[in-house]
């Protein structure tokens, strides 16, 4: 049974290879990945390491949590599963609206209800 660990506080320069190399000291690493920003490709400062057994994962947690790695103190713990329904963990704020191009037009309703809007050129104040 595979066990995935969360590794937080990674240095910006840490890559998949160095993460794998450091954690292989504690067992068979099936996968090691540093999470990167999809737009910039830069590290987001955390990653995941997957071990093939619970014993190896526990050994890594015991030996690596709160330890220095690439100049930073890292946090290592079991990764928690993402919930399938994010609505229960995040507030809804009346289902969106506002923002750039969003709904939420405020009091005036549709277009033209804001400052000076909705009036023709000849219909001045």
Automatic annotation (TrEMBL):
Molecular functions (GO terms): RNA binding
Bias type Gly residues, positions = 95-125
- Annotated RRM domain ranges read 3-81
Q: Which residues form a coiled coil?
A: none
**What CDD domains does the annotation carry?**
RRM2_NsCP33_like
* Positions with biased composition (Basic and acidic residues): 69-81
Q: Which InterPro entries match?
A: Nucleotide-bd_a/b_plait_sf, RBD_domain_sf, RRM2_NsCP33-like, RRM_dom, SLIRP/GR-RBP-like
Know the name of this protein? Answer: RNA-binding domain-containing protein
Query: What is the taxonomic lineage of the source species?
Result: Eukaryota, Fungi, Fungi incertae sedis, Mucoromycota, Glomeromycotina
